[in-house]
Fold this protein.
Amino acid sequence: MRILALDVATRTGFAIGRPGKIERSASVRLKRPDEPLYVAGRNIGFFLRDIFTIRSERPDVIVVEAPLPPGAERGAMSAILAWGCLFVIEFMGALFEIPVRHVDAGQVRKFYTGRARWVAPPGFSTAKDSNRKYGKLKVIERAKQLGHIPSDCNDDNRADACAVHYYASVKWYGHRETELTLFGAPTPNRAA
């Protein structure tokens, strides 16, 4: 069983490997800021084709973070890109006979970090989306703690994809949750 986990955005994070073992993860830029949106759809298709055929990393399942409803996205273009890429992912999955499963970003974040939504502490940032940025920072921290990304990596898209992979591994594909030891004491196991 090999899982391909995706966090779809202009810079799409991916993590691929067996349940509980991420063999490779990174992020790929689907389009430059000056390029039209359809370039992202084309490039996600080429990326998946390469994973499925050239790199011989053909997954048994694709798990993708489900896009938010169009009104909930930060902007119309983000919603169009996310949904358009999801259509391509679904098509490629059908073409290569690989099932596609969707996961809710909040559920993944809650499982991975302990909270679905984070509130930035005072002084963290004055930006409108400081809570969102703080939540991304927490996912990166957790990915580093679990060894899913290198300690010098700050790629939130890659970390999100690793979180999706871990969620799918534990919730659906039989991997036991990693016990994290903090300050010499094991953390209590959560209900899976």
About this structure: The beta strands are 3-7, 11-18, 21-29, 61-65, 100-103, 181-182, 185-186. The helical segments are 38-54, 76-95, 105-113, 130-145, 156-171. The first helix runs from residue 38 to 54. The mean pLDDT is 89.
